[in-house]
Amino acid sequence: MSGAGPELYPGELPSWAVFKFPPDSAPAALPPPVADHYSFRNPIPIPENVYNAVLHPYVPLTIAATYAVSISTLNWWNRKHGNKPWKISKTRAFHAFVIFHNVLLAVYSAVTCWAMVRSLKHSIPHYTDRNAVVGTVDALCKIHGPRGLGDAVTYDGQTNTWGSKNAQIRVSPAGLPESTDVGRIWNEGLAWWGWVFYLSKFYEVLDTAIIIMKGKRSSTLQTYHHAGAMLSMWSGIRYMSPPIWMFALVNSGIHAMMYTYYTVAALKIRVPNRIKRTLTTMQITQFLVGVAFAACHLFVSYTVPVSVPYNVAEKVLSKVNASSIASAASSATSSAVVAPASGVAIAFLKKMIYRAAGDEGLAENVYQPGESSPVSYADSNANQAQSPIHNTVNRVVYRTEYQHVPCIDTSGQAFAIYLNLIYLAPLTVLFVRFFIKSYIKRTSPNARKPSSHEVISKSTRDAIRGVDRQVESFGKSAEDGVSSAIMNGASALRGRAAAARSNGDARHGSLSPENKKYLESFQGRIVEELERAGEGEQETKQRAKKLARDVVGTAESANGKTTA
């Protein structure tokens, strides 16, 4: 596509080629460039094998699933035991760790937020630059290569190669974007700080562990947020999806404020409740902003300037006064100055003469000595002097065209976006639902007529509270399901154990096997004693049977009273 300048095309439907599941594994995530000196954008070198090993999909999936199930189980356990604080939570060491943990995350989150701001500052063109709007979109969509509209290095899924629209931009010998490229978000800090921010999501689960050990219930919204953040950051960094910088920037900024609040609270300093409500509002707001911003990338395209070469063949038609030119050439070449000159020098002089005569086409077609020439310049025939001369000149002409490019290039980048949409969509739907209900209630005919600003503000607060209540009800239902599964599993284990005992040692009437053996031995001793007393065999048997019946009857009666 060509035009007078770069243009932006919002609202265009994305290509179905990017909606592929599972997404293409190529390209692999590019580790941050290794510099020979300290750089804030890449403070510590990260080996490539380590960088990509922790981006294996099983890592976040396993940790997120284990975390969600563990917290549901521990919430149920705390509720079963009256939400009493654990003993460890009353120690000084625990209190010191809580303060250290919150200070560490507050400082780290603030530094990460600044690193993201810095990377944007070095990537986005100044607002006074020509084509600043399209240039900003290009900077946010294409995160590899050098800075400049149309200079990005992108991955082509059809050819499985990296390349640039600008023919002057080269890739490395390995076929990857040059690590020395600057001016794009990835090399300007996202590759390093985004990867570390992804790892920090695993460490942040200690927030929930601290709450659990204090005997409190971890909110379902917090559990959902932590588990979802692991997967969102993983997909964004693994597939180098453009909007992931937004998640790192906004989330780290909110966390800097949130952990500062936690630190102050841990130091027993009273903090107004409205600050806590404000932080909750900001967390849900980031979900809404994040889902809208990420989705936009799928529906944006624009044009970039591309210098396209064209081969142009031109025919030169001219009438040349050959005799005058030959005369000039003869006088020039007969000069004592150029008499010993070589054929190369003579050819050069001929070029100058033709140019002086105003015939550039002929000048460019003067042949060097040793080459066959289609024109005999020694021929001064008068007829030739008046004949037209046809010459074809081949030239390469570069023309700037504006070619259409989508914001998203690979199926992996698209996968990271719609995974974030799946993660954030339930919260967004709940928020919109509660907001509409609250807004309609406040604007009904019977309601007092407040200002529109007041209506929106209160409806937003009601929607946030509604989202919190709804998510908590979902969470408690899940915990009840976990507790039921645990209890059913324990009952099943006890049932199998009882069945095993029953199959191994069957009872005889109301007597246990041990009591039966005892009675049998007791009966044998009675028989022996009667035989010593000299009774006959027949009398002995009858007496023994009677005594045995009496003893057994007494034992059964006693056993019945005991079990009752």
TrEMBL record:
It holds the Pfam family ELO. GO terms for molecular function: fatty acid elongase activity. GO terms for biological process: fatty acid elongation, monounsaturated fatty acid; fatty acid elongation, polyunsaturated fatty acid; fatty acid elongation, saturated fatty acid; sphingolipid biosynthetic process; very long-chain fatty acid biosynthetic process. Residues 531-564 are annotated as: Disordered. Keywords: Fatty acid biosynthesis, Fatty acid metabolism, Lipid biosynthesis, Lipid metabolism, Membrane, Transferase, Transmembrane, Transmembrane helix. It is found in: Membrane. It is a multi-pass membrane protein. The chain crosses the membrane at residues 58-77, 97-117, 244-264, 284-304, 324-349, 415-436. Its EC number is 2.3.1.-. The keyword Transmembrane applies. One of its GO terms (cellular component) is endoplasmic reticulum membrane. Residues 531-542 have a biased composition (Basic and acidic residues). It catalyses: an acyl-CoA + malonyl-CoA + H(+) = a 3-oxoacyl-CoA + CO2 + CoA. Its main location: membrane. InterPro entries: ELO_fam. Belongs to the ELO family. This is Elongation of fatty acids protein. It comes from Periconia macrospinosa.
